[in-house]
Amino acid sequence: MFRATTLERTLLVISDFIAFSICFVIAFWVQFYSGWIADKLDTTRQLLDYLPAGLLLSATWVFFFFLTGLYRSWLLLSRTQQALYVLMTILFGIVFLIVGLFGSEFIGKIMASAPLTEGYIYGSRFVWIFAYGLLAFFLVVSFRMSIYLFLRRLLRNGFGANRMLVLGATEMGARVADSFMATPERGQKVIGFVDERYQVLPKEYANLPLLGKYSDLPRIVRENHVRGIIISHDSTSVQEIMRILVWLCDLPVHIYIIPNLYNVVHGHFKANLVHGFELQELFPFNMPLWQVRVKRVMDVIIALGLLILSSPISLLAALAIKLDSKGPIFYSQERVGLYGRRFMIHKFRTMKVDAEKNGAQWATKNDPRITRIGMFLRRARIDELPQLLCVLKGDMSMVGPRPERAVFIEQLREQVPFYISRLKIKPGLTGWAQVRHHYDTSIEDVQKKLQYDMYYYENMSLVLDIQILFRTVYVVITGKGAQ
After folding, report:
1. Alpha-carbon distances, residue 214 vs 169, 224, 406, 417, 422 (angstroms)
2. Distance CA 138, CA 19 (A)
3. Strand segments (E) across 176-324
4. Coil vs helix vs strand at 349
């Protein structure tokens, strides 16, 4: 199905490339044909001879825009904010360009043993370089605004809108739904309401269908391809809003909340303002797409490297487990991953074979179920090495929350507010919570680690991942953080 965000990103890339190509052609004309730069006038120069360099420069600008997050969806964000981001990015690019030009001249002077303090060609070209940047800014922003005019026309005609639900058949919910329907160019379409009073309310509210109650949300979201949910509830009780959010945290949707309810939860969550509507988005995922892709490449490279380098340690661990106690070398178990997807993890066995004969339970300090070699494997984190295979498969990342068992998740989602929100992040072999805290032994430990997990979610970046990986090495060497 056509989606506005996919078309938006495609058109932005194409338009930016065209804008920078036009800038290159104009710069070529100014330099060699205009006569405005007397020492560069040369009408014998042909544009085709410089075309490869121009295409490379345009592609470099597009790649730079990609790195700085300018190919996110801007449909619900401020156009002024977008223009400022473009301006800031181009200014940084111009600075890099100037440094590169002067740097190449500087290196050339060193190679030629020429004086380093004089004779720089580009010293008199500052004005022209910044004029190039100003023209690029004007063209890029103009093309982008034209794209949004085109997209809004498509959206007004009913093409490509994201499908939304309103939680709560309330007067405020009806006003929000009406606002979205009155401005289809924003790219959001309300398809119906969900309310706990589903059994007693009419099956239509504010000219939209009432689709079910909160416990039906997973089915409704899946069947209707819902992309966003707006919370519009009668109650302003923190506990009531928290209870509603528990149903939403593990769904792959954007969560929005109306202003008077946002005041209730303000301070509990990081939020993004939705431009053009009186809404706030909760749990926004702010890691740029390019960092998500680089993170996956890092996962594969690091996991593969560690599997190879740790193979002698793994062989010794396997031998020690067999000599220490009866039972298999590996321990396999189903865990819950991103948005509730089930997968199997594999670890070196650190407990006795009958460790859970009385059912699933947390490990405790000095747990008698842990074998002698198992205690060492846990302290050194060697028991986690087989999970590198899960990282290679894509079920896990190198950095993220600890993957948990379904039985514990069902218990904890009722006891720990927003524990389920961890499912918005791919689970990790290590993570901020793992290097800052020990294994879970109580509800208090879970609550503490959830704070670390939410900090990671709100501040996800490659820099933080690298910091956690280095801290993990420290934990492994010192044993700090492990039980």
Report:
1. 12, 15, 20, 17, 20
2. 9
3. 188-194, 204-205, 208-212, 226-231, 254-257, 271-274, 279-282
4. coil
CA–CA gap between residue 167 and residue 198 (Å, rounded): 11
- CB-based contact 190:227 (threshold 8 Å): no
How crowded is the C-beta side of 278, counted as CA atoms within 13 Å?
13
Rounded CA gap, 219 and 203, in Å? Answer: 17
Comparing CA positions, the residue from 320, 425, 464 lying closest to residue 380 is 320
Domains contained in the chain, CATH given? 4-156 (no CATH), 162-282 (3.40.50.720), 289-478 (no CATH)
* 92 neighbors 65 (Cβ within 8 angstroms): no
In degrees and rounded to multiples of 5, residue 35 shows phi and psi of 80, 0
Q: pLDDT tens, position by position, for the chain (483 residues)?
A: 345 678 888 999 999 999 999 999 999 999 889 888 877 788 889 999 999 999 999 999 999 998 888 888 787 677 888 899 899 999 999 988 877 777 666 676 677 666 666 655 555 577 888 899 999 999 999 999 999 888 888 887 777 788 899 998 988 889 888 888 888 877 788 999 999 889 999 999 999 999 999 889 889 998 998 988 988 876 655 566 667 777 777 788 888 887 666 454 544 455 555 655 667 777 777 677 778 888 999 999 999 999 999 999 999 999 999 888 888 899 888 998 888 889 999 899 888 876 666 666 656 666 778 888 888 888 888 888 999 999 999 999 999 998 888 887 777 776 776 677 778 889 999 988 888 776 655 667 777 787 788 788 878 888 899 999 988 888 777 766 544
**Alpha helices for 188-258 (secondary structure H):** 217-224, 238-248
Residue type, 61: W
- Note the pTM of the prediction, 2 decimals: 0.63
H helices within 160-256, ranges in order? 171-182, 217-224, 238-248
Contact between 154 and 160 under an 8 Å Cβ cutoff? The reply is: yes
Q: How big is the chain, counted in residues?
A: 483
Instruction: Name the residue among 86, 275, 250, 260 with its Cα closest to residue 187.
Output: 275
* Residue 216: CB atoms within 10 Å: 14
Structure-token pair, residue 159: 């093409």
Angstrom distance (rounded) from CA 256 to CA 168: 13
Name 230's bridge partners. 166, 256
Query: Which 8-state DSSP code applies to residue 418?
Result: T
Alpha-carbon distances, residue 263 vs 260, 270, 347, 379 (angstroms): 5, 13, 45, 44
- Is residue 312 a contact partner of residue 300, using CB atoms and an 8 Å limit? no
